[in-house]
Amino acid sequence: MTTIKQADFIQSIADGFQHISIYHPVDFIRAMAGAYEVEQSPAAKNAIAQILMNSRMAVEGHRPVCQDTGVPVVFLKIGMDVRWDATMSVQEMVDEGVRRAYTDKDNPLRASMLADPAGARRNTRDNTPAVLYMEVVPGDKIEVKLAAKGGGSENKARFVTLNPGDSVVDWVIGQVPAMGGDWCPPGMLGIGIGGTAEKAMLLAKEALLEPLDMHELKARGPKTRAEELRIEIFDKVNALGIGAQGLGGLTTVLDVKVADYPTHATALPVAIIPNCAATRHAHFFLDGSGPARLDPPGIEHWPKLEVDLAVGAKRVNLETLDKSGTAEWRAGDRLLLTGRILTGRDAAHKRLADLMAKGEPLPVDLKNRLIYYVGPVDPVRDEVVGPAGPTTSRRMDKFMDAMLGKTGLLGSIGKSERGAQAVEAIKRHQGVHLIAVGGAAYLVSKAVRGARVLAFQELGMEAIREFEVKDMPVMVAVDASGNAVHESGPREWRAKIGKIPVTVA
Fold first, then answer.
1. 314-488 adopts what CATH topology?
2. Quick one: pLDDT at residue 501?
3. 252, 238 in Cβ contact below 8 A?
4. Could you tell me the residue ranges of all domains in the chain?
5. What is the CATH number of domain 151-277?
6. Whether residue 303 has a cis bond before it, omega within 30° of 0
7. How confident is the model at residue 504 (pLDDT cuts 50, 70, 90)?
C-alpha cells in the first residue's frame, strides 16, 4: 500500500505547471528545429526562427514561452493500492497546486480562467479551477499527465458525427484550412475517433500529450489502422501549404496523433484538437517517496540561431506615422516598430464599442495609433512587462469597422488572419493589420521598453496599456488595399507542393 501525502501531491502539481511554462518538451524542439532546416518559405522560416529563439530565451530567462499560460488540464491514473494522506479532495489538491504555480512570485503566470462564462466572466485571479480527469487502475502509483492548453488552439477544436462509411481523412482535410493560422502552427493535431461525442474529444485531447515521433513512425512503417491514418493525414495536411503561422510553407503540422475507441454501429464520431507552437505538457509518477522531480532539460537541446531580424525589415517611427505612411506598406513587408502603441483585446474593445454607441468620449485617443491585441504576463524583477505575444486577431473582427472609421486608428497588431468582414473594413478605411509571431511572446516582450495602464485597469491583463517599443518585429498581414498574406501565402505554397485539392467544409 502506497501512501501519497497531500503536500507532496500539491507540490508536484505546482512544480509541473511551473516547469512546462518555461521548458518546451525536447522532442518538440527537435521537430521544430528540423522544420526550420527544411523550410523554403522565407516568411515561414522567419516565424519558425522566432519561435525557436523565443523558446531558448525562455529557458535562459526562466520565464514563460507564451503570454497565454493556458488552461490547466490534468489527467490522473490512480492505482487501486494507493492510500491518500489528505484532508482535501483530489480536485481541491490539484487546484491548490495550480494556484501556487500561477501565483509564484519568481515566475508568475497569466490568470486566464473566467468564472460565470456566459455571464459576468469574472477572472478567478489564480487560473483555477483545473480541468481534471481521473481513472482508477491497478497498481500502487499515481500517473500524472498535465498540460497548459492555449486558448487560441483550443478554440479551433472540431467535432462531427460522420456516417459509418464516410472518410475521416476527407473530413479532417476539409476542416484544417478553415482553422487557418489562428492555432499557431506548426504544432500537432490530436484526432479522436469513436466512442461518443465526449469520448472522441477526450481521446483527441489526451493524444496531444504523446511524444512527437512521426519520423520514426514513417521509418518503421505503420502497424495499425490508426498509424496509417496518422501518416496519411500528416502528409495531406502539410500538402495544404498553410505553413508556420498560416503564412504559407512546407510544415503545418509536426505530428498527427490518432486515438480510437469502439463506437456504436450507427455512428463514426470524430474530433480534432490542435496543439499550438506553445506545446506544454509533462508526465510523471508519484510512488509515495515525495514530490515528483522534474529535471530541466539541458540548454544544448536548443539550437542557437544567429538570425538578425533587422535584415530585410523596414524601420518605422510610430511617432510620425500617419495614413500616408501606412499606405506605402505592402502585404508581406517585415517591419521594426519604434515608438508608442496601445494595447487592447476582447473586453476592452467591447467597452470602447459601447462608449461609441452611446456617443460618449473614449478614455484614450486612438488617432494615428496602432492597437496591439495582447494580454501580457505580469512583470518580475527588472522587466517592464512579462511575455507579451499576440492573441488571435479574428476575435476583434466585429469591432474593426467602428475602430477604423470613428477613431482615427491606423490599424491593429495581432496574430494570424482576419476574416472577410475585417479585411473589407481595412480596405474601405485604408487601414492596416500587422502580425507578430504567436509563440514568440518572450522575444516580443524584449522590444517593450515602457508600459503603463491607460484605461480599464480592473480588466487586469485585458486593460488598455501604452507600450513604448523599440524595434518590435512585425509583418504586414493586410495592407491598405486589402491584400492579405494569409490568402496569398498558402495559395502560393499549395500550388508549389501541388499534391491534393482543397475543399473547405
1. fumarase (3.20.130)
2. 61
3. yes
4. 1-149+281-307, 151-277, 314-488
5. 3.30.1330
6. no
7. very low
